[in-house]
Amino acid sequence: MTTMTKSKGAAALPLNTILAGDCIEMMNSLPENSIDLIFADPPYNLQLKGDLHRPDNSKVDAVDDAWDQFSSFAAYDRFTRDWLAAARRLLKPNGAIWVIGSYHNIFRVGASLQDAGFWILNDVVWRKSNPMPNFRGKRFTNAHETMIWASKSEGAKYTFNYEALKSLNEGVQMRSDWVLPICNGGERLKDDNGDKAHPTQKPESLLHRVLVGSTNPGDVVLDPFFGTGTTGAVAKMLGRDFIGIEREEAYRKVAQKRLDSIRKFDREALQVSASKRAEPRVPFGQLVERGMLRPGEELYSINGRFKAKVRADGTLVGKDVKGSIHQVGAAMEGAPSCNGWTYWAFKREGQIVPIDVLRQQIRAELAN
Amino acid sequence: MTTMTKSKGAAALPLNTILAGDCIEMMNSLPENSIDLIFADPPYNLQLKGDLHRPDNSKVDAVDDAWDQFSSFAAYDRFTRDWLAAARRLLKPNGAIWVIGSYHNIFRVGASLQDAGFWILNDVVWRKSNPMPNFRGKRFTNAHETMIWASKSEGAKYTFNYEALKSLNEGVQMRSDWVLPICNGGERLKDDNGDKAHPTQKPESLLHRVLVGSTNPGDVVLDPFFGTGTTGAVAKMLGRDFIGIEREEAYRKVAQKRLDSIRKFDREALQVSASKRAEPRVPFGQLVERGMLRPGEELYSINGRFKAKVRADGTLVGKDVKGSIHQVGAAMEGAPSCNGWTYWAFKREGQIVPIDVLRQQIRAELAN
DNA sequence: ACCTAAGGTGAATCTTGCT
DNA sequence: GAGCAAGATTCACCTTAGG
């Protein structure tokens, strides 16, 4: 790969390098209207109070780095406005930006994007297939992050490789929710001690989809919060040029080593997200939520011997037992286990209908 | 259903009615600190430029109603701040709010929520199983909407029926991404012409999960943008009280008709699995007092590594430690904390039995 | 070599109630 | 309100060790 190609007027772009320093200063040192795509993974401004332990008493290794600390929402907003202004100056008129965040920061980022004149094209949800659970049972599992995709301004002719994404998605149009695993296993970079080199390394599969969808080969991709360089790594594989900016020496070192080992079009490395087409699990509770069965309605065992009543939370109550469709079926039969889906039925217009029919309906919908 | 019950000081709440008028004015006419939950589906501020046609040239019936028009982001922000302030005044200290939106408005709503002092608990993604495709192939299929769940302030004791949601989800904790179909078929209300009565009617399944998860029977739920009354309908079914506010006469009429036809589920069906925390507290000493365990008897850690002796006052003595079942367990494991109830076991007839079995016996007695 | 069991871990605003 | 003690609480992976 080449450094310092693609001159734009007097200045030149330091292609395929990692710039050391503050992202706003470094961006301001680059020529305006020179970048095709920006991917930004800014600090999330998590506000953690104390330690968190798992039920087995092991401690969660949380993101408590200094770079994620801001004194107030106002301070975070100032930072956001400043780096977005610098980013917007760099973008070509038909360039675009992606920003990723969580509920801690993404609403502020999104509003600032709009205020700065960016035009939101989609918000895209990264649904994590293996998120960390909520150990205390006080909230929903925080199972997704949000990305905002925006053009430099309204009416701009941004890049969108519709057909490529459709192919990636087995021939149907790509949706705004992407199911991808978090970065772990061999892809997760380790430091010399064997600990994770960066607390929030993003999976290459995510960047693969972003770059295939919104850049063309030869485009210049800037990542102002480069970290361990996932953006650069995927850009290199896909034949795009990148520029990274990273303040922390330790991250730059790991990223450079990573980049040096990557070859363009290393197909093997791209085989991360082949989809498994297992039958989706359908919770019985969905039949209740969706009104297919009514709370208070009676279910009948397929052998006609027992009945039980549906509750609003998708559990059953029978004589002396309550619990899941499986638990109540097992208890009534005195069996160690029972597949409630094939054991229970409901009545419609005098007919006895197995509840599994309703599950099949939902699965058919999901397949579309 | 009753109207005007639950007086709060001088004022009374117009329960289970639809108030006609501007939502901010109407909210300001209600007593402060009186509402348990607010569900709000405000205008999305869609900024549609022209007509959209499907590939077969049929015209998409878009949301272009007057109530969704704002002159600028600043105007939308003003409106948002104002209704959020009125909403926050109404909430009880431990109340909570849900707001639903799309990328057009949700970032502004989220930032305003945070600025107003609400404390975000989760952002929840409603992943539509049957969204409208992107006909032009210029963007990702807009296949989700975003809900923000927030308590009135940081540290508030909001309602979260963890076990009920877990039951709804087949025994695993509920995640922040919910896959549910959009509202159509028989559930979709039609006007006298057979057209959809409201452009953005929400599915009852969505409200079912919201209300089961974050309210209890008898709670008061306010929806300041009532529309055709999905919130009221599900609240009524689930035995919650509701208050709706709606400006448009046509929507109120449809909503009232809908509400009149709905019956509440029976009481048993509304019972929901409770968390252990809600069960009565049983001191370990009671097991000794009642002779279920004898002073001097040995307890064994569940992993078989440690043992300790029961004393007459309900404390344990082990090697070098004495104290509560929790303290001794934690000390032996070198852990910051330990739930002694699940950590210790005793022997009966050669069998190892967890002490929690004895606590459950006592709780079962207390329930009778 | 292959299978099973045990252990580790991930952007987390993660308790409640009594004294 | 601060301080302390009781006690409730996890899913989908991957790696490693052991059989």
From TrEMBL, chains A, B:
GO cellular-component term (any): cytoplasm
This enzyme's EC code(s): 2.1.1.-
Enzyme class name: transferase
InterPro entries: DNA_methylase_N4/N6, DNA_methylase_N6_adenine_CS, RAMA, RM_Methyltransferase, SAM-dependent_MTases_sf
Residue span(s) of domain DNA methylase N-4/N-6: 35-257
Catalytic activity: a 2'-deoxyadenosine in DNA + S-adenosyl-L-methionine = an N(6)-methyl-2'-deoxyadenosine in DNA + S-adenosyl-L-homocysteine + H(+)
Keywords from the UniProt entry: DNA replication, DNA-binding, Methyltransferase, S-adenosyl-L-methionine, Transferase
Superkingdom field: Bacteria
GO biological process: DNA replication; methylation
All residue ranges annotated as the RAMA domain in the record: 267-366
Gene3D superfamilies, A to Z: Vaccinia Virus protein VP39 (3.40.50.150)
GO MF assignments: DNA binding; N-methyltransferase activity; site-specific DNA-methyltransferase (adenine-specific) activity
Family label: Belongs to the N(4)/N(6)-methyltransferase family.
Name used for this protein in its record: Methyltransferase
Organism: Thalassobius vesicularis
